[in-house]
Amino acid sequence: MSNPSFPTPGETLGLSPIAFVESPYRQKFAIPRQPGLVKSARGVIHFTEAYAHPDCLRGIEDFSHLWLTFMFHETATQGWKPLVRPPRLGGNQRKGVFATRSTFRPNPIGLSVVELLEVRNNTLVVAGLDLLHGTPILDIKPYLPYSDSIADARGGYADARPNTGMQVQFSAAAEAVLAQHTAQYPQLRALITEVLQQDPRPGYQREQNWQKEYGMHLYDFNIKWRVEDNLNQVISIS
Ligand code: SAM
What we know:
- The chain is α+β, with helices and mostly antiparallel strands.
- Helices cover 14% and strands 29% of the residues.
């Protein structure tokens, strides 16, 4: 049976961002692979002029969670492949792109549920995001538990929340820097801890249990840590 013919809406749909995200994640490495894994990650959604109007947000505070549809702008020009290696499977197995949440897709569009903490001067303060700083937001919708949460859904190879069993410790030097910044960054310790508990090492390095020094940027901080067995030792925060 041949495919029914559908009207093609032309090459591009000409989607334009309605907002951009201010996020603690300043590079792709170490960003959690799904929302809600690092609850202490706070972000602010800044609307572009056309949408920064209270009418657009009327009633949004009644919802505890929001769907964000966004663009993987950092990798959008890197193309896509029909088969990808989900990090969740250690990078060893390949799955069809539409059976994954890979960032490398025919249309580089992401979907994330975040917690709405506050509506502040026509911006939205959210928690638990998995978005890079500067990510363009294409749409925002309220999360509807009665329809969006399906209790008996099957999750395939990603059926359960990852549990790495990784521990986190801070050196005295790192503790001192944390103490200096508590007022401005009250979530910083929890953020670093929760990000490292996700074991951000690339799948193959995790599989082979590489023991080396790693680095990441959260806000304007440069964080260095060393992995020893299942312990992440935070060496420095600068
Ligand atoms: N929850 C979304 C989804 O399911 O569509 C994203 C899942 S994707 C696996 C999450 C990863 O996307 C993050 O770990 C980060 O490396 C990457 N990422 C986040 N924001 C991005 C951006 N603006 N451009 C490219 N990659 C991004």
